[in-house]
């Protein structure tokens, strides 16, 4: 029996289970959080895709960053991300996380989330409507199923890069022990 | 020779006092050796129930006879006393290194052991009274030699209760002596049986008062909490484990050997139980409930366990009062088991106090990673206390439940259920706040206790599990006691007990437990290995926590529950009891003038009356 | 030897069956709640996927007590399971007295409480303090009910209580003592931590309470523990009030009915504050239970 | 219960104002010299203006001054007063109002953080909202936000086309 084959197929099964069951931690930083209740409740009902809310980072697979991030919030976001357990995914929400959005010239709002955390995908819009959110999350499911959502591995591999960027805007960063 | 059980500790007491002045460890070592000797020689006389001894003394024309004898009941209590004092003495060899009064402690401790032996072997009232008073006073000195000063009011309360009870005892005994010309138990029992029932009942109630006080039954439990809160940490296990139980010894003697139950047999009954017995059982039920509610409120670990002792005493008195074979066996089992697990708890807490120097639960936390064995001892003991199988605590509670359901005593059962479920709450509080949670920065360097303090805890853990699997060992001596007292015995084997509705079989339980845990372990072991992180790396809504002190949930752990009983607790804390006692004492002078010319039996009556009044106003503290 | 292998096989079979059934029930409950809220809801097999995913994830531990707590929680419920008659399936259920089962369930609760508080997260402690308080609320009426049942049928074994209701369905305690069955139903909802009585796991106040620090396999094990606990509690109810069953299929069906009713009942209510929940239990269920018990013993 | 006119009379008599103005109903603006301000605050507090809503700050870069505005309110008169005073931009030091209203400590801390004004007597002027801020206080007019942002953050690269302004 080929050991790698077994490992590979087992990983595929886990990926499949992961794509069918995603618990998201919505980090409600900006206005985007208000788009989530309709997405979760009866109008759009994201639970039919196996996506549901999680109460704490320990139980979550998906970190939704729902809006602009001030540097102060970014520090907490990084801490929260590090408390999550692999496999874990980050999705940026709205134009603020992509390029700063309407806060493009604010002195304390970061402009590109993917420089600080390994973002799997962005959902564009200001704010994205529930349809867009669902569309984005379905794409994320596909990515997970195909094993393409490997943000947590990228984070491990490029730890230096991410830490450098984080420390450039935050100074000293407290990390999990 | 039964006198040696009294005089060896007494003689050793003074030796310990003198030697301990030279070497701090000598006193406890002597206590340990004496207890070991007592334990060994008691083991040797097991079964020789015909042993007895008597002295004659001529005093002022009266021929006084001091009688001593060995019964299964007194043998059991003597063994328990010497065993627990052995463990405590071994524990305190190390733990008393910095204790200022260790000489006095060992002197008094050995005297207490000796006087308890005297109480247990006494077969006449005079001997009983002498040793009882000796025990009360020496234990009082022991309690007040704690590091904290015993509050004036608490001491006052204890003395009032003990002295009043002792007087009532003495009056009743002298009355009986006038009638029979003897202090011995048998003639007294015969006299009481043939006397008019109300008078006999009154006399026996007067005689039993000191035992009620010692057992800490509601409403006479007011001294227990303060005594525990102030006693030296090494004495608390003995106080709660043994000293309270001596009260039950006295009660059993009064109920069975002085034929109290025979006298009230034909009075008005409720569901086949004489009303007076039912009243006693109800007192036990109230004791359970008040002790439990107040235990949940405590912030001081010793006081919490003290209140828990009060509530567990309720179970024992219920079992003794309903006096069915199951009830009696259950309460004797519970008496033994309570001694075992409560001593374990107190020893574990004593170890914590030894290392941290505080009894407040919110001042410590997270000690499990520093004192794992102490934690294991505490955990095993609380599993037993909460009555969770497969430990000894469950068996005794199970037997008591069976006894209560068998007769359909709904309200007694309700109190028993309440105490049992609520005991989860109060035993979990120290577990969670002292041993689990965040470790305080000032306790980072704490180490596990020394070997000599570990050994007693280890032995007790073993005993809890042993009796949990083989209750037959305990049932063996209990059935002899029941036989001796004329109660039917319960069917049992080494690992099973026959209840009223089905049997308890600890072997099956143990097997099944093993199977369940193996499956769970397999699930755990086959899954991915987990990564160890620190206690401060917890979900804190994204904020980085550095201050362990404020990140520990300990103070007012059950606030929502306490809110339900705030009114009740506030009422009890008003000092109502003290003011009324003081007023009674003031008017005592005028009382004396009016009633002093009365007959002896009137005195007994007054004592009882005083006690009824005290009981009525003695709303829980 | 054969006997031992047979026994071990039986142990494993019952465990796997109860776990699978419990997870299925959880999936059904999610579907029902979704339909009540006019949602489509996750697929019925969603809990299986959740468990599979959780065991595939990484996990953190806060020390040996955290591990021990999870093992004790799962081991405790598995041990309890063997004492419950599941239809005709019974391993040690002859020995399983009701009181024993109630106290055995406490082993699991204690394990879970110990492990989660051992994580050092104060939110876990708050959740546990609430859970224990609520337990005092619902256990009291339940024990009074057991008192009356044992006194009425003069046996404390679950098997015996089940046999006592044999014959016509009119002998079921549900019809013989409907008030008692109603009280037990409310208690059942409290036991399972369903809606009016779920203050201890309040996700948005205290971060899901006891399980706040559990991720990965720890959460997976607690999910398994939860599923088996559901089966135990439902089986207890079916055995005590619906006359049990003589085969596992009709037994499962009866459990399903009770579960669906409890889920629907639970999805209608907001949440009790913790002391109000206790007050409620001591007022109505306990009061009715005491009246019923008095009726039976007199 | 005074009306606006009576209030201004009271202020004119007791407080040496540089300018007074009734902005609109229930809203009065008073300008004072810095040295009179603390005294004026305690005077108004003793005349029912017990509520300090907030302290705000305006940076007049060309005039080289910080304007501090103390917003007071009276629950008897139902009138808002804005007490304004201008202090020199360099070195930008003023007295604390902490003794009169303890809450002023927080407002002053905030102003210190965002404008760099020192308040003598207030010993709690640590960072409150920003974290690890090493540059000019960000609300000062001479703080060039655009330049800072260009410096601190990178613009996203859209297929080689940098985002420019």
From TrEMBL, chain A:
<feature type="domain" description="NADH:ubiquinone oxidoreductase-like 20kDa subunit">
    <location>
        <begin position="28"/>
        <end position="140"/>
    </location>
</feature>
<dbReference type="InterPro" id="IPR006138">
    <property type="entry name" value="NADH_UQ_OxRdtase_20Kd_su"/>
</dbReference>
<dbReference type="GO" id="GO:0045271">
    <property type="term" value="C:respiratory chain complex I"/>
</dbReference>
<keyword id="KW-0004">4Fe-4S</keyword>
<dbReference type="InterPro" id="IPR006137">
    <property type="entry name" value="NADH_UbQ_OxRdtase-like_20kDa"/>
</dbReference>
<keyword id="KW-0408">Iron</keyword>
<protein>
    <submittedName>
        <fullName>Membrane bound protein complex subunit mbxJ /NADH dehydrogenase subunit B</fullName>
    </submittedName>
</protein>
<keyword id="KW-0874">Quinone</keyword>
<dbReference type="GO" id="GO:0048038">
    <property type="term" value="F:quinone binding"/>
</dbReference>
<dbReference type="GO" id="GO:0046872">
    <property type="term" value="F:metal ion binding"/>
</dbReference>
<comment type="similarity">
    <text>Belongs to the complex I 20 kDa subunit family.</text>
</comment>
<keyword id="KW-0411">Iron-sulfur</keyword>
UniProtKB/TrEMBL annotation, chain B:
<feature type="transmembrane region" description="Helical">
    <location>
        <begin position="335"/>
        <end position="355"/>
    </location>
</feature>
<keyword id="KW-0472">Membrane</keyword>
<feature type="transmembrane region" description="Helical">
    <location>
        <begin position="103"/>
        <end position="120"/>
    </location>
</feature>
<feature type="transmembrane region" description="Helical">
    <location>
        <begin position="275"/>
        <end position="297"/>
    </location>
</feature>
<feature type="transmembrane region" description="Helical">
    <location>
        <begin position="235"/>
        <end position="255"/>
    </location>
</feature>
<dbReference type="GO" id="GO:0008137">
    <property type="term" value="F:NADH dehydrogenase (ubiquinone) activity"/>
</dbReference>
<dbReference type="InterPro" id="IPR001750">
    <property type="entry name" value="ND/Mrp_TM"/>
</dbReference>
<dbReference type="Pfam" id="PF00361">
    <property type="entry name" value="Proton_antipo_M"/>
</dbReference>
<keyword id="KW-0560">Oxidoreductase</keyword>
<dbReference type="InterPro" id="IPR052175">
    <property type="entry name" value="ComplexI-like_HydComp"/>
</dbReference>
<dbReference type="GO" id="GO:0005886">
    <property type="term" value="C:plasma membrane"/>
</dbReference>
<feature type="transmembrane region" description="Helical">
    <location>
        <begin position="408"/>
        <end position="428"/>
    </location>
</feature>
TrEMBL record, chain C:
<dbReference type="InterPro" id="IPR052561">
    <property type="entry name" value="ComplexI_Subunit1"/>
</dbReference>
<feature type="transmembrane region" description="Helical">
    <location>
        <begin position="96"/>
        <end position="115"/>
    </location>
</feature>
<feature type="transmembrane region" description="Helical">
    <location>
        <begin position="64"/>
        <end position="84"/>
    </location>
</feature>
<feature type="transmembrane region" description="Helical">
    <location>
        <begin position="136"/>
        <end position="154"/>
    </location>
</feature>
<keyword id="KW-0472">Membrane</keyword>
<feature type="transmembrane region" description="Helical">
    <location>
        <begin position="280"/>
        <end position="297"/>
    </location>
</feature>
<feature type="transmembrane region" description="Helical">
    <location>
        <begin position="6"/>
        <end position="29"/>
    </location>
</feature>
<feature type="transmembrane region" description="Helical">
    <location>
        <begin position="174"/>
        <end position="193"/>
    </location>
</feature>
<feature type="transmembrane region" description="Helical">
    <location>
        <begin position="248"/>
        <end position="268"/>
    </location>
</feature>
<protein>
    <submittedName>
        <fullName>Membrane bound protein complex subunit mbxM</fullName>
    </submittedName>
</protein>
<feature type="transmembrane region" description="Helical">
    <location>
        <begin position="223"/>
        <end position="242"/>
    </location>
</feature>
<keyword id="KW-0812">Transmembrane</keyword>
From TrEMBL, chain D:
<dbReference type="InterPro" id="IPR001268">
    <property type="entry name" value="NADH_UbQ_OxRdtase_30kDa_su"/>
</dbReference>
<feature type="domain" description="NADH:ubiquinone oxidoreductase 30kDa subunit">
    <location>
        <begin position="31"/>
        <end position="148"/>
    </location>
</feature>
<dbReference type="GO" id="GO:0008137">
    <property type="term" value="F:NADH dehydrogenase (ubiquinone) activity"/>
</dbReference>
<dbReference type="Pfam" id="PF00329">
    <property type="entry name" value="Complex1_30kDa"/>
</dbReference>
<comment type="similarity">
    <text>Belongs to the complex I 30 kDa subunit family.</text>
</comment>
<dbReference type="InterPro" id="IPR037232">
    <property type="entry name" value="NADH_quin_OxRdtase_su_C/D-like"/>
</dbReference>
<protein>
    <submittedName>
        <fullName>Membrane bound protein complex subunit mbxK</fullName>
    </submittedName>
</protein>
